[in-house]
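May I ask for a single protein's sequence together with how it folds?
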Amino acid sequence: MGSKQANKILFENRVPQRMSARRVQMQAARYGDAAGIERIRPHRLRYMCLTDLTRAALAHSQIQQVSGHASQKALGVYQALAVADVVADYQQAIR
């Protein structure tokens, strides 16, 4: 990712100015609580999104670009989760 792209504001307040990391955490927790979802934090949302993209068989290079990871090696945790889903589905199918 280029430096210009990395510096774009993802979350902004009403002013509009960049929200602090703590404020984003608080907002995520608040909306998670309102939805009845425990322990929702920004990193967990990112993790869930990347896992879903892996499950949907999006190309690893595309997931790498979305995630901002420097290498595809860092995507291993999401790939392992997708394999775990296959194993779980297989186990359920043979019961």
User: Anything to note?
Assistant: The chain has two domains: 9-40, 41-95.
